[in-house]
Amino acid sequence: MKLNKFAQRNFLILAVTSSFLVIPNYVSNAGDQVIRIAQENFAATQFKVFKDAAAIYEKANPGWKVDLVQQDGALYESIGETNLLKGNNSPDAYFDWIGAGSNLRFQQGFGSDIAPYLAKSKLTTYLSSSVLSRGQLNGKQQILPFSSDVSNVIWYDTDEFKKYNLTPPKTWADLIAICAKFKAAGKTCFSIGNKDKWVAGNFFAHLYSRTIGDDLYGNILSLKSPITDPKLATALGYITDLVKKGYVNSDVNAINDQEAETKFFNNGGELLPMGSWLIGIAQDQAPKKHIDFFNLPAIPGGLGDQSSVLGTTTGYIFNAKSKHLDQVTKFFEALYSPQITKELISAGYSPLTKDATISSQTALEQKLVVMFNKATHIVPPPDTGYGQKEADALNSATAEMLGLVKTPNAALTEAAAALKTK
Q: In whole numbers, what is the pLDDT of the chain averaged over residues?
């Protein structure tokens, strides 16, 4: 998730120890017996699992405490993570997405090679070598892989689909027909909360890669090809078509992801583009709602892999500035243990540990894992797979299409100016 604009630092950081003491300005040093683990905010059921892991660690290491530092997800991705790392209260380890951003933070000195700590820990018994390899780059173990996230699928209410005799679409034309049927019934087809630009940014980035080709998509976001490429302008036209037909909520750029989820949970929108983490949110907020999902349907004449999945691997970076990395390793031994793995699965996570057998997961979790593992191509989201400037430029163009503010060519010309790659 990503927030592109924060003119003022009007945010709240929750620094909560497992014993619920608030330590707002804790500064790590070798003499302290507190380790700080930073990441974006949890759902309530997920936070409990991390507290349970902290309790296991604290029991095994008397005198040591764990701070679980949470930030709003959009804030964390945009400036929060960077501010935490550069501040006096720098975390000992922090959550990240494997990609260009995590590699940059490692190169900036905010990452330590985890391999020496793995060699003397139980973590190598919890994680396979193939999983660990996902976090390796330039000969170093940059990240401790935690889970695989499907960054966007399209969620729907199975009861609503039964009511209107609908089945998951296989092609874009099928999807348009579903939207037409919902509109005829007086219902809003898509509920999208794009105030922070990452939601539609993810959804339509997948459409772009399917339309223009995976290589060109990656090249544009890596600044190897111009963002004004005519093929991308054509792909943006799909958004204009959806909006002009009235298939997207009119307040799409005014509400955030949580507001869009609330609409979806209350039948204010029939389709919700969102990632795999919605499972945990739905367990908290709409436990009685029957939901399912489908992957982006095939795009006619698309040049990309039409069975691709938009996704990423997440994990934790050990901060090179920390004096407590031996203790950090012990905390993650607790978090990745068989006991906590079961709790993580129950809370909606898809952990990458050996004990996370597919038979122990819910039907929706199993379906997501199978889809991710069978995908012949994984498409990185703009905000976690590439640089922030590049993601912001493309996501802003997407937002302008949703607001019918500019033509595709004009929006991309503006994006090129922002990137200075005309």
A: 89
Mean pLDDT value across residues 46-62: 96
Based on the fold, state whether residues 106 and 157 are members of the same structural domain: no
- Whether residue 325 contacts residue 92, with contact meaning beta carbons closer than 8 Å, is answered with yes
When divided into structural domains, the chain yields a total of 2
- As a whole number of angstroms, the distance between CA 274 and CA 314 comes to 16
Q: Which two tokens stand for residue 356?
A: 């996370």
| Domain shared by 67 and 85, yes or no | yes
DSSP per residue, 249-283: -TTTTTS-HHHHHHHHHTTS-SEEEE-TTHHHHHH
264, 276, 284: which is closest to 47 by C-alpha? 284
Question: Could you tell me if 85 and 91 are in contact, meaning their C-beta atoms sit under 8 angstroms apart?
Answer: yes
The answer to whether residue 214 is domain-embedded is yes
- Identify whether residues 350 and 211 lie together within a single domain: no
Co-location of 90 and 143 in the same domain: yes
Burial of 119 (C-beta count, 10 Å sphere; 0-12/13-18/19+) = exposed
- Number of Cα atoms under 13 Å in the Cβ half of residue 127: 26
Please provide the size of the chain in residues: 422
* Enclosing domain of residue 204: 150-310+380-419
CA distance 291 to 269: 13
Q: Are residues 154 and 268 in the same domain?
A: yes
Give yes or no for a contact between 226 and 416, defined as CB atoms under 8 angstroms apart: yes
Instruction: Name which residue leads in pLDDT, 42 or 48.
Output: 48
Q: Judge if 236 and 257 occupy the same domain.
A: yes
The verdict on 59 and 92 lying in the same domain is: yes
Q: Residue 2 pLDDT > 50, yes or no?
A: no
Poorest-pLDDT segment among 72-86, 179-193, 293-307, 320-334: 72-86
Show the tokens assigned to 233.
Answer: 């302008």
DSSP three-state, residue 131: helix
CA angle, residues 306, 307, 313, in degrees to nearest 5: 125
